[in-house]
Every structure is written in structure tokens, then in C-alpha cells.
Amino acid sequence: MTVAMYPGSFDPVHNGHLAIIGVAASLFDQLIVAVGHNPAKESGMFTGPERLEMIEAAVEAEKLSGVRVVLFTGLVTDAAKAEGANCLVKGLRNGSDLDTELLQANMNLQSAGGGLHTVLLPGIGPDALISSRYVREIASRGGDVQPVVPEVVFDHLSRKFRD
Amino acid sequence: MTVAMYPGSFDPVHNGHLAIIGVAASLFDQLIVAVGHNPAKESGMFTGPERLEMIEAAVEAEKLSGVRVVLFTGLVTDAAKAEGANCLVKGLRNGSDLDTELLQANMNLQSAGGGLHTVLLPGIGPDALISSRYVREIASRGGDVQPVVPEVVFDHLSRKFRD
Amino acid sequence: MTVAMYPGSFDPVHNGHLAIIGVAASLFDQLIVAVGHNPAKESGMFTGPERLEMIEAAVEAEKLSGVRVVLFTGLVTDAAKAEGANCLVKGLRNGSDLDTELLQANMNLQSAGGGLHTVLLPGIGPDALISSRYVREIASRGGDVQPVVPEVVFDHLSRKFRD
Amino acid sequence: MTVAMYPGSFDPVHNGHLAIIGVAASLFDQLIVAVGHNPAKESGMFTGPERLEMIEAAVEAEKLSGVRVVLFTGLVTDAAKAEGANCLVKGLRNGSDLDTELLQANMNLQSAGGGLHTVLLPGIGPDALISSRYVREIASRGGDVQPVVPEVVFDHLSRKFRD
Amino acid sequence: MTVAMYPGSFDPVHNGHLAIIGVAASLFDQLIVAVGHNPAKESGMFTGPERLEMIEAAVEAEKLSGVRVVLFTGLVTDAAKAEGANCLVKGLRNGSDLDTELLQANMNLQSAGGGLHTVLLPGIGPDALISSRYVREIASRGGDVQPVVPEVVFDHLSRKFRD
Amino acid sequence: MTVAMYPGSFDPVHNGHLAIIGVAASLFDQLIVAVGHNPAKESGMFTGPERLEMIEAAVEAEKLSGVRVVLFTGLVTDAAKAEGANCLVKGLRNGSDLDTELLQANMNLQSAGGGLHTVLLPGIGPDALISSRYVREIASRGGDVQPVVPEVVFDHLSRKFRD
């Protein structure tokens, strides 16, 4: 049985992430979306628990099954071991992503003693070129991000920046 | 009529930027160089108004016509709308630039409701591989940046770091 | 007045090309789509005149104005001079395209004596990742290319490979 | 159940391919290595059946289970359907590979009507930077490829070029 | 006589750096490994002198001759002049590294008045994809970095994070 | 003593090659420019001996010392051994070049038993983005390549295509 872990900060989750979750959920027996955060020092736009909740709501809205969302702190390799995952999944938009992913895949493989491989899922189609960083920048300055995030995230962002 | 906006921080403008401005000014009816800054919290080496002034002086020294320089705060898409620009212009030096520009072009297009396209101008020739970040690092540590910046910038840097 | 030339082999034109034509037509006073071929030795899947006709039909179907389609043989820089174009337009999908385009932009600029600049339009959105080569391979082996080409091309391919 | 297909020409299979096969076999319920060739016009260094045999021998030597090797002609998407595969697996060494794979992944997804996703496995470690093309060039000119191919391939190459 | 300088922060040195040092030491008459730091404001995981010491120990353990390790503050070009180096050496893992190196090579060449060229050594083989940043992250969170750093660094990290 | 070999087809040599030769000649004790060709089946625009002659003339015109030009057939690694070279030098213009060079560097290192390293010299400045393929295409169709090739090559091309 293959249990895949999709780690990230998801601050917030966007349609590009959801496309990866949809593909990964169809390919692996179980998919664990793992939200990295530091409960002692939350530093994102949203807290870890808020980010988790938004992913859960979006995954439910898309009726994706076999997906579990968890929080983790520390190393991805430790989180994978704790959750019983036997591979990592990452989205891949372009060459810069690839350069980072090859370094991380190698470091994770070596520090995990060789058993934890990384699977890269290409971002293609209309949701391919989205970035949480730009979602935050645009939303926080009053721009429209509705086309690139799920409804639950749009609602959270609207509430946050209406005030 | 095509009004192009070339947004950036231009901290400070260098010969690579000026090559882009020269090409863009020859291609579009109007070119607006838009200097992004935050007047409430200036964080660059030069303030927004200083950066604007240096661009204006350099553009005049090169006798480029049809170029207007403005300051903006917030979203590029809002600045474009406010100035009546119907496309964005960006310089492109390499694959890392491209990866960033594709993400930004997509986010700007989607958040602007589809009408604001991005035009990429390749940096080629002797002024192709210059970076404001390295200009600042080199100048602030006493190195020579005269070959890569316009005279007005060289003078400003010399004054700043002579003291 | 800016007259842009979009050169290529367009064997055959696909939705990615049409997206570039649409953007370029909106940005420049005139757009010339220039189909490179060798009438003495047609080597593509379609002849030059067939490729031109399909582009014309697709451009008309999309109601794009200010677009002219021409055939050329030999150098792009000579075609640009002959047609009065003052810049070249190319689509840009990824880093490999960029590496080729930077070489070509430099060679064209230098061999044209400095006046012919190249403008790169990023391929983003659902039609970003299409390639004429794969259209030909898939269609010639009986695969479905309807989602990635205009109707007129789909009809031509269907007729060609039904036989 | 996830049945993955790893298509390629494998002319000949090398240690980089075998590393991908090993990882993919551990992740998916079944792995089909699909050797593309044209029986009417064999054009590689080895015929399709020879390439298949070498893969089978190498897979057996590495004691990998759940791997089946098949020949196919024509479209990868048709081969996947014929073999009941629900995803494609490709190795990924660098940005040039990525640019090709994103185009192919998109074309395959669209021409297959949306259901056939591509999974990219990063080539990392000592067998990361091998290429069949260079294996052929080096071996055919008397160079040593023993460090980069399985024993069965080394034997075949030795016999072929001893003569 | 060619004296090469290999500048970096080396915080800490890892097996990828050591592979570059080994190759460079074999190619040039002298190799100076130059550790950049700011003694007035040490900001790394290790101080400059600690980083230097670890490199010296690792170089000695590998029995590499012709290698000198120095500290520097400020510009690489000034350090090169001060040490009598006539070229710079950098490791190159991927396209992102390349984009940065081309910018730096050009800026260093221009600000040094043309005489200081940069030589890039490709990272290939089992130690190709290592990064000091990930070494720090993994070690500081209790992960195993033994496969990717020399023994002296492993000892330092173990002591630091045991406490 | 370091003897570097710069292999290539040089069909014909251009200003980008000469920039690399100039830098390499200044860095290594000896530089051997090695022109790969097949005397039994010359397939380039110029024969091997013609290409060699043009390089020799251009090197002499630039008064570069310590440079020897040779012809070779077969493997680069064999040529290097035959000429006593202990490293290879290649020019590097962009990420596509890098991807090819990393594969070749690895294959050459492994097939040579580990001792033959590759040094990459970045193409920067006005002669950075030149390609022999485009020189051939432009010159053969009557375009101007004078700005990108040495005088001796320009003369050869003029004579060849005047007829």
C-alpha cells in the first residue's frame, strides 16, 4: 500500500495545490496533505490550524476521497515516518521549482536513510501558474484572487481584508 | 493606442533597465516607467522619489522620448489601470527571471480580469547581465559600478558612499 | 507606428499560436504572421500555402483584426524588412524556448544592424503547453487533437488521416 | 489499483532507467515498462525485442517484482489504454527534460480526454546523469560504458562492437 | 601561474564543496578557499573562524594539497586581489545556480576592470545535490546529515545540537 | 601542469568561441582547441582542416599564446588522452547548454575512469549569445554575420556564398 505525503505551507491553499491533490489522491492508496507550521511561532498569513481547515473544506467541496490533512512541525522526513507515508509528492511548475525539488529530494532521501522517494506532479492547465505568495500579496492589497483560489479561501481572505 | 507600463523597484536604475526602456519606448505609443515603493516605510537604498529622479535624468540623458516616470504603491495592476496602461513590460535575463515572470504574468492577468498582458523583452548584449542587488552590494563596499550604471546613478552612489 | 512580425513554421497553427496572435494583435498597430517555408522543397506536413490558409481561417473565426498572414523564404530579418515590420514577436513557453529565443534575438539584432528587436509573449493559461510537433505526431497516429487546435486545422487533419 | 506505464525507447536501458524502474515499482501496484519501436522500420541501435530482453534481464538481476516489459508502436496514450495503465511515469534529470515532459504531459492529458496523468521521478544520486544517446556514442567508438549500464547491456555492447 | 579563489559562506562546508575543492586543487597551481563573513556581525550558524577550521580539517582529512583557506569580509573581487588570485571558481548544480553565477561573473568581471574570470565546476556524481541551507535545517531539527558532510562537520553539528 | 582541451565542431569558429579561447588560454598552462570531424565523411559546412585553419588564423590575429589547434575523430576522452590533456573546457551560454554539459561531463568522467574533469566558462558580455548553427543559416542566405565572427571566417563565408 502506498501512502503519499504532500507537504507544504499552504498559506493559503490555492487551485494549483488542489489540482495536485486531485491527481495524487487518484494515484495513491492514501494521500496525507501535511501542513508545516510552528505552533510556538506562527509566522504566516494564516495559522496552521486555519490553513488545515481551509484545505479540508476545499477537499470536501471537491469531493475528493482518500485525503487526510495533518499539521506538522519540524522535518518532513519525520512527519512522513510518523504518519506512515512511504513517498513524498510535490507539485512542479517550472525549472526553478525543479532545482529546489531535486535538492530537497536528495537531502530527504539521504537523511531518511534511502527509503523516502519524491514524486513530482507537473502543474499543467489553467491552474498551473499560481503561487501562495502572490495570492497573499494581491489579496492583502485589495486585488481579486477569486479565479485562483477555492471558495473557502476566497471567503477567508475577503473577511480578513474587509476589516 | 498602446500604453505600456514597465514596473519595478529600480533601486537604482542600471544600464540593463535603460536598454529595456529604450526598446520599449521605440515599440509602444507611450511608456510609463513605474517605480514601486512604500512612502510610509521606504526600505530601499534610495527613496522612491530619488529613484524616480535618477530614471528621469538617465532617460533625458539618453534623449528617449515618449517615456513618463511615475511612483506607485500597492498592486501593479491597479497602477496600470490608474495610468491607463494596457500592457506590462518586463526585462528577461534568464530562466529564473522567466519562471518568476510567468507566475506574475498569470496572476496579473487573472486578477485583472483577463485584459492586462505582459510583454517580455530579452536582455541581450553588453548590458544583459546586471542586477540592482549587486550594484548596491558592490557600490556600498567601495567597488566600481561605473561600467553598469548611468552617470547620474554613479554620481549618487559616489556621494552616498564617499561619506 | 509599430508593425510586428510573428514568424514561424505553423505546421500546423494551434491554439497556443492563436493565443499569441490574439495578444499581439491587441498590442501592435499591425501584426504580420509570417509562415516560413521553402517552395522549392516543401518539407512539412502541410505546404506553406496550406498553413497560411489555415491561419487565415482561424484568425477570421476568432474575429481578430489587424492581422495579415504572409509566406516567406529565407531569413526572418529579410522578411521583416520586406514587409516593413519593426519588431519580431515570439511565444515563450519555457526555459528551453527562452534559450533558443535569446540566441535568435541576438543573432537577428546583430545581423540586422541593431534595429530589429524581439518581443516575447509568455504562453500562460489552458493553451500554454502545445507543440506543433506533438500535434503532428498525435494526429498522424490517430490520436485526438481537437482540444488543442482550431476547427479548421482539426478538419484538415481529419481529412488527411482518414484517408 | 494503480498501474503505471514507463514509456521510452530504452536503446539501450541504462542505470538511470533502472533507478527509475526501482522507485516506480516500489510505489505502484504494477509497473509496465513500455518500449516504443516500429517493427516495420527498426531504427535504433538495438531492435525493439532486443531492448525488451535486456530490460527484462536487468530487472530480474535486480530482483524487482511487479514489473512487466512490453513493446508498443504508435501513441503512448493508446499503449496505456491497451495495457490498462492509469498513469505515466517519466524520469527527470534537468530543466530540458522538464520542458519536454510538461509539453508531453499536457498533450497526452488532453488527447486522452483528461484521465491520464504523468508522474515525474527525479534522477538523483550516482546514476542521475546518464543518457542512452551518449551510451551509444561512447560504446560504438570503443569507450567504456561499464559504470553506467547493467551487466547484460554491457555484454551486448561488447559483443556488438568487438566484431 | 594560476591562483584560483573559491569564495563562499561554507556554513558549513559539505561534501559537494569538498568535491569542488578536490577538482579545483588538481587543476590550478594554487587554490584559495575564501570564507566570507562579517566579524562585526556574525550571522551564520557557525562563525567565520569555525567555518574556516572545519574546511581546513576536512581538506587535511582528504589529503588535498595546494589548498589554503582564508577569511574575507567585503567584496570577492577585493579578496581576490588581496590574495593574488587570478580567477574565481564556483560550483554549479543546476540552472538556478547558473543564472546567479552568470550575473555574478559579469558583475565581478566588470567591476574588476575586466581581468577576473569565473570558472564553473559542475556538481556531478553522488555529492552533486547538497545545500548548506538544508544541512543546517535538517541538523538543527535532529535529522541525519552524516551522508552529506565530512566527519569534522558532523561532529560539530552533533555537539551543537546535542546540547 | 594543466593542459586543457576545448573540444567542439567549430563549424565555423565565432567570436563566442574566441572569447572562451582567450579566457582558457590565460588560465591554463596549455590550451588545445580540438576540432572534431570525420575525415571519411565530412558533413559540416567546412571540412575539418578548413575549420582548424580558420581557428589558427583567428588565434594568431588575436595574438593568443599557448594555444594549439588539432583535429580529432572519435571520442573526446580518447583525444584528451592522446594529447595529454587533463581537463576539458566548454563554453556555457544558458540552461540548455548546462543540461547537455552536465550529462557529457558525467559520461566523460565515468568512461574515462574518473580522472577527466570538465571546466565550464560562462559566456558573458557582447559575444555571449552566438551560435555556429545560426552563423551558417544567416550567411548561407545572404545575411550579415560580420559582427559575430572573426575576419578570417567572414572572408571564407563571403567567398563561399558569393559564388
Topology overview:
The structure is a homohexamer of 163-residue chains.
Chain A: E1 3-8, H1 15-27, E2 30-36, H2 48-61, E3 67-72, H3 76-83, E4 87-92, H4 95-111, E5 117-122, H5 132-140, H6 151-162
Parallel strand pairs in A: 1-2, 1-4, 2-3, 4-5
Quick gist of this model?
The first copy, chain A, has helices at 15-27, 48-61, 76-83, 95-111, 132-140, 151-162, and strands spanning 3-8, 30-36, 67-72, 87-92, 117-122. With 163 residues, chain A is α/β, with parallel strands linked by helices.
Provide an overview of this structure.
With 163 residues, chain A is α/β, with parallel strands linked by helices. Chain A has one domain: 3-Layer(aba) Sandwich (Rossmann fold), CATH 3.40.50.620. Chain A contains 6 helices and 5 strands. In chain A, strands 3-2-1-4-5 form a 5-stranded parallel beta sheet, sandwiched between helices. The longest helix of chain A is centred in the middle third of the chain and has 17 residues.
